[in-house]
User: What shape does this take?
Amino acid sequence: MKKKIKVAVLMGGKTPEYEISLISGCEVVKNLPKKFEVFPVVISRNGKKWQLFGKQKLFLLEDPIKLRGTNKDIKLPEDKELVNVGQISDRVDVCFIAMHGPFGEDGTIQGMLELAGIPYTGPGILASALGMDKIMFRKILATEGIRSPKYVVIEEGEPTEKIVNSLGKPPYFVKPHNQGSSVGASIVRSNSAMPKALNLVSEYSNKALVDEYISGIEVTCGVLGNKRLVALPIVEIIPLKGEFFNYESKYTESGAEEIVPARISSSLSAKIQKIALDVYKAVGCKGFSRVDFILKDKKKPYVLEINTIPGLTPMSLLPKAAKAAGYSYPRLLEKIITYAFT
Assistant: This one.
C-alpha cells in the first residue's frame, strides 16, 4: 500500500484576515483527497499558540465569520498544543499554508519553514514579501513596463498636499500598503474625506497607498505552476454590497456576482492572461497566485495587485477559475501540493 503524504494545514495567525484564513484552512482540510493524511493546525491571533486537532473535530467548529470584530480566537475542541515547529517537521511531509495577510502571506511563515527544512505550498519568501508590500510590487511593475494605476505613498502624519499635485482632484482609492482582502481600503471622493480614510489605514499600516481612481470592470486571473505555467480563465467580478470588491462583498452571502469566463473578448482575455503570467514571473512566484485587474473603458487592463495566497474556499475566485479550466477543487489542492515538491 502506497504511503500517504502527510500534510499540515496551517490556518489562522496574527492577521486581520484571521477568520478568512480559518475558512480557507477548514475547506482545504475537508477537501484534500484521501491520498493525503491531514493535520489541521490553528495558530492563535497573537501567533504564540499553535494547536493541532483531529480532522473530524473540524466539523464542530463555530462559523469563523462570527468572530470578525471580536478579537477572539476560535474555540477549539480538545487538542494538542505544539511547542515548536520541530514537532511539525517530525510529523509531516509538507505544510499547506492557508494563511492570508501579514505573517502568513508576506514571507514570514515561509522563512520559518525554510529554516526548519519543511516543504510548503505557494510562493517563496521573496515573492511572498514582494506581493504583500504593494509599494514594492508597484515598483517591480514599473521596472517591467507593466501598467498599473498612478499612485502616491503617504506615511503616517505626512502632509497630503502631494496627492493632488501628483494625482489631480479626487476620487482616489486609498488602502494600507501591506494588507489583503481590501482590509482598511476605501474610496475617497472629496479632499475632506481623506483624513478619515488615512485614519482607517493607520489601524493596519504606517503607510497608505493612494491610487488614482479608475472606473471599470474588475477582473482577476489565476496562475498555476512552477516552470510550466498555466493562466486560468478570467473571472469578472461585480460587487453587490459595496462600491468596490471590499471585505463585505467578498465574504458575505450574495455580496458579489462572479462570472467565469468573464464577458470580454477572447483577444482581451488572452492579453490579460499574458500580463498575469508576466507579473507572476516578475515577482518570482511558484505554485499558484492570482493577479487582480481593473479594465479602464472596459478594454485597457491595469494591474492592481497580486495575491500570493488567494482565498481557498471552493467558492473563492481561484477555485472557480480552476473549475472552469477543468480542475475540481480536490484536484486543484492536489496540484498545489505537488508544486511544493517540484
Summary: Residues 221 and 234 are 5 Å apart (CA to CA). The longest strand covers residues 216-225.
